[in-house]
């Protein structure tokens, strides 16, 4: 089969080489063998091949994090050959094995391409807004980097929950994408006065919930409402901030972390609750996975990763394996 195999830490995506004669992996007990149909591309895929990600697999390894596909072989009763699934696994290959606990059946009304980017991105946004921030209908929800993978999911989920959504992004094109997927207002966070624009939109109230995958927490404390909740989702800017804690006290606000990957270890009982909420939204059509306009292939995954790293993409960048897919 074809697969990318990493034998040493790489400088970046351009060092990835697609190999043609990699043996198909066989499933161990508790695992599935899956024919990959589509792959969700992530910023952390690059960190992983560089040895800069928290997960450092032993060499040699196949990189990748998210996928959708069809079960070829199953060692567990809940899945059988032919089942359509999506999940988490080392996915840059035509055939992979992964633990059955890391996959789910695909929602009925979405394609392999749409499903490939669901497993990490969407529950992060849902758990952040629902479990951690307890976003309520009628509140103002500000989403930073709203055209990105987790951001565009957060925009749709917040809107479905009845919030008034303010999107930020770094370009007019990305702000239009955020509005297309449901944002009520759009602000360029490169504007020096973006916090004042938030206050103006909210009539001085500020944003009740701020969703931040970028690293704009310090500035966001100026735009948050009394009793507001600021969600620390990630650090796409590349730096960890130091916060003036007096603002947290004076505005009676909470700064709250979300680490979805750690729920398996620390709070596993919450995972089915999150997926039930998400499946309800997806199957009712109230939210829909948003894809970047260019669909990559297994062969040009390095190009897709470079586009993500250069901030050229919006929504979710996907690579198909074996051509474009449909819902059948």
Can you summarize this structure?
By secondary structure, the protein is of the alpha/beta class. The protein has eleven helices and 15 strands.
List the helices and strands and how they pair.
Layout: E1 3-4, E2 18-19, E3 31-40, H1 43-50, E4 66-74, E5 84-88, E6 95-99, E7 103-105, H2 112-115, H3 121-132, E8 140-143, H4 149-160, E9 164-169, H5 172-180, E10 185-188, H6 194-201, E11 207-212, H7 217-220, E12 224-232, H8 245-250, E13 254-257, H9 263-266, H10 271-283, E14 296-297, H11 301-309, E15 318-320
Parallel strand pairs: 8-9, 8-11, 9-10, 11-12, 12-13, 14-15
Antiparallel strand pairs: 1-2, 3-4, 3-6, 3-15, 4-5, 5-7
Helix pairs in contact: 3-4, 3-10
Q: Can you walk through the features of this model?
A:
With about 325 residues, this protein is α/β, with parallel strands linked by helices. About 25% of the residues lie in helices and about 25% in strands. It has eleven helices and 15 strands. The protein has helices at about 45-50, 110-115, 120-130, 150-160, 170-180, 195-200, 215-220, 245-250, 265, 270-285, 300-310, and strands spanning about 5, 20, 30-40, 65-75, 85-90, 95-100, 105, 140-145, 165-170, 185-190, 205-210, 225-230, 255, 295, 320. The strands form three sheets. Strands 3, 4, 5, 6, 7, 14 and 15 form a seven-stranded mixed sheet that branches. Strands 10-9-8-11-12-13 form a six-stranded parallel sheet, with helices on both faces. Helix 3 crosses helix 4. The longest helix is centred in the last third of the chain and has 13 residues, at about 270-285. The chain is globular, with a radius of gyration of 20 Å. It starts with a strand and ends in an 8-residue tail after the last strand. The model has no long low-confidence stretch (mean pLDDT about 95).
């Amino acid at each position: 089969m074809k697969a990318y195999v990493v034998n040493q830490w790489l400088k970046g995506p351009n060092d990835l080489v697609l190999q043609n004669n990699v043996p198909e992996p066989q499933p161990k007990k508790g695992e599935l063998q899956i024919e990959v149909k589509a792959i969700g591309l992530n910023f952390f895929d690059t960190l992983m091949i560089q040895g800069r990600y928290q997960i450092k697999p032993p060499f040699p390894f196949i990189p990748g994090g998210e996928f959708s596909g069809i079960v070829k072989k199953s060692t567990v009763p809940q899945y059988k050959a032919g089942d359509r699934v999506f999940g988490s696994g080392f996915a840059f290959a035509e055939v992979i094995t992964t633990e059955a606990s890391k996959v789910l059946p695909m929602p009925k009304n979405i394609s392999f391409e749409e499903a490939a980017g669901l497993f990490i991105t969407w529950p992060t946004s849902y758990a952040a807004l629902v479990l951690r921030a307890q976003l309520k209908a009628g509140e103002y929800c500000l989403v930073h980097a709203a055209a990105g993978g987790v951001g565009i999911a957060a925009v749709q989920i917040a809107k479905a929950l009845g919030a008034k959504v303010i999107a930020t992004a770094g370009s007019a094109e990305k702000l239009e994408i955020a509005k297309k997927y449901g944002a009520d207002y759009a602000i360029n966070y490169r504007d020096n006065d973006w916090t004042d624009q938030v206050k103006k939109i909210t009539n001085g109230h500020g944003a009740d919930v701020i969703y931040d995958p970028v690293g704009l927490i310090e500035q966001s404390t100026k735009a948050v409402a009394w009793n507001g909740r600021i969600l620390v989702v990630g650090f796409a800017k590349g730096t960890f901030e130091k916060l003036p804690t007096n603002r947290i006290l004076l505005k009676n606000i909470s700064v709250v972390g979300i680490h979805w990957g750690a729920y398996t270890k620390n709070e596993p009982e919450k995972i089915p609750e999150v997926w039930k909420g998400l499946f309800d939204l997806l199957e009712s059509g109230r939210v829909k996975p948003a894809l970047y306009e260019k669909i990559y292939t297994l062969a040009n995954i390095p190009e897709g990763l470079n586009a993500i790293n250069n901030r050229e993409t919006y929504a979710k960048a996907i690579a198909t394996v074996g051509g474009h897919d449909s819902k059948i």
